[in-house]
Amino acid sequence: MIHYKQAEEIQIMKEGGVKLREAVKLLLPTIRPGQTTQEIDKRAKKLILSQGAEISFNKVKGYSWATCLPINEQVVHTPPGKRAIKEGDVLTIDIGAYYRGFHTDYATTFVVGASGDEKTETFLRVGKETLDKAIQQAKVGNHLGNISEVIEEGIYSNGYHIIEQLTGHGVGHELHEDPFVPGFLDKPLNKTLKIRAGLVLAIEVIYSMGTEQIINERGDNWSIVTTDGSLSACFEHTVVITNKNTFILT
Length: 250
Prior knowledge:
Layout: H1 7-27, H2 37-50, E1 54-55, E2 67-68, E3 74-76, E4 90-99, E5 102-111, H3 118-136, H4 144-156, E6 161-162, E7 168-170, E8 177-181, E9 200-208, E10 214-216, E11 224-226, E12 232-241, E13 246-248
Antiparallel strand pairs: 1-4, 2-4, 3-11, 4-5, 6-9, 7-8, 7-9, 9-12, 10-11, 12-13
């Protein structure tokens, strides 16, 4: 069941989004080659709490951390650990905040340290631009399929691969709510959900350079990796759709 948010709930989520944005703004400049993902997670936790919010991700059953921190071939859900990031690694920071009963969810991917090679930079730029275009389709009167179609076109037209099993989602009292927002059209566009005011979505572009095939990383119950070891990335914003505008909360 979809929980369409009322004005008061949207205001709380806007405040939570500001707190998450500020935590991310403070976290990103501190990330350096040689740090472990465990160290990054500890800082992320402190920064979220310092904003007067709670950790979101540790409210997911069985997950104990503030972030997911995939590197290179790791796609999503990678817990922090002792793996150290190296110069030129592609790091995803997936992070959420919980404020006054509501979650907000955000992810970005970037090259650690010096700029990556042109191939990697293009790969990441396409993901960012595709998310921006997808958010423009999140408006009253459109269908969820309009969002999915833009993601599919943006990624496949550049020769990359959508990870079809991993999708965007509704967000609110729970981190993952209905509806799912696929990165591809899985049915005729007019058969997908029509967007109404009060819908809050975590729109995600999850893709890889070499394959759409994924597997669980050996020895880890959470982390998912590309089967061919190719680079993966995730870009995500939480957005709320109103009758007047679509607001990016994160």
